[in-house]
Amino acid sequence: MKGLDYSLPLSLYIHVPFCVRKCDYCAFYSLPLAAVDKEWMEKYLSIILAEIDALNRDYGKTYETIFIGGGNPGVLGEKRLRQILEKAQENGRAKEVTVETNPETITPDFMALSDVLTRISVGIQSMDENVLRHLGRNATREDNLKALSILSSSSLRWNADIITAVPGETIETTLHDIEEVASYNPGHISFYCLSFEEGTPLIEREVPIGEEAEAEFLRKGWKKLYDLGYEHYEVSNFAKNGERCRHNEIYWHLGQYVGFGPGSESSIGYFPVISMRDSETLDAFLRSPELSCTPLTAEETEEEFLLTVLRTKDGIDKAEYSRRFGKVFDSVYKDAIRSLDSSFYIDTQNCFSLTEAGFMMLDRIILALAMGI
User: Is the separation of the CB atoms in 278 and 262 below 8 Å?
Assistant: First the structure.
């Protein structure tokens, strides 16, 4: 693959563009099963397997991590998922292998995949029936409880997603969601505000609760997760010791990853990087899958680096910054940093990172730093 740095680790992402039913807030590209012919799913599978096979032969080594996301990959069923996972690991077992799914598709048959994966990410979103209905979720509270019971009794690592700041929801409801999900002992919890995206049913009937209200939901939720023993290691992600999501850390540190499937993204190279995107729709993907490549400039690569790594508690390793960009971090950003409130960041000889107060101001801080490039 042109532009791939074969000396660096490589991760693999597979986008499954199918779901049982689209949630009212979802803007990710996916198609409900009612709109999908069975032959489309089989053709999708054959193309994905061929793409992975070609990359396997080209890269020739074990992938660092593998992530199958969606949509809802669970709708593919255990047999198809196994084919993808086995093909992706023909060159060796990846350090972390994750499948994303929704509660209603977690079954004992699904858990039979435990020999070819290491981690499951489940979209719980809320344990409250009213909130679930408001979000237009297909899963019910009962589905959530069944999924949590199955996951908590398995040997796999697992993550649960929780959405907060839903119109009409109280902070008490969010805190109860966190407590109830955490009682099943997931190693990792993703916790984030509801997003209002153009073209979704949700935005046509609701309005956001406002930035100040959202911030209060987040502050209270962050404290609850901390009290329950979870490290706030990325803006929207919390983990117990040793349970961070390795795959997402590849994204956040601008590592190499290749994405296959409609609308999936890739980033390869080191400095500068090449951004790639697979065919935008399922129709285009089934006709002729094609990765469109966009080489980023040095400045664009550095901006992308700021956008991703400053989301993490670890922040910017100044030695890594110098290796990657051939510059001294303190020299480039000292004036921009001086303009920031000192409560927003931690600046040491080796690292620059944001505090939780800084996470709240993330976009503004990144803009201030990017202006100094």
Answer: yes
Report how far residue 34's alpha carbon sits from residue 5's, in angstroms, rounded to the nearest whole number: 41
Most confident of 21-25, 28-32, 109-113, 163-167: 163-167
Burial string for 150-164 (b: 16+ CB within 10 Å, else e) reads bbeeeebbbbbbbbb
Which region, left, alpha or beta, applies to residue 165 given φ > 0 means left and ψ of -120 to 50 means alpha? left
How many residues in total does the chain contain? 373
Task: Tell me the per-residue pLDDT of 175-225, one tens digit each, with 9 for 90 and over.
Answer: 999 999 999 999 999 999 999 999 999 999 999 999 999 999 999 999 999
Protein fold of 10-249: TIM Barrel (3.20.20)
Question: Closest Cα partner for 79 from 49, 36, 37?
Answer: 49
Kindly report the number of other CB atoms within 10 A of residue 53's CB atom: 13
Amino acid letter, 105: T
Token readout for 322 is 């110098």
Q: How far apart are CA 300 and CA 98, in angstroms?
A: 30
pLDDT tens figures, 305-332: 999 999 999 999 999 999 999 999 999 9
CA 155 → CA 123, 131, 190, distances in Å? Answer: 19, 30, 20
**Gap between the Cα atoms of 291 and 286, Å rounded:** 13
DSSP, collapsed to helix, strand or coil, labels residue 315 as coil
Domain parsing of the chain, residue ranges: 10-249, 312-373
Closest CA to 174 of 142, 107, 222, 134: 222
Strand order in the sheet with 265-269: 231-234, 237-239, 188-193, 157-164, 119-125, 96-101, 65-70, 10-16, 256-260, 265-269, 273-277, 292-295
Q: What's the pLDDT score for residue 294?
A: 96
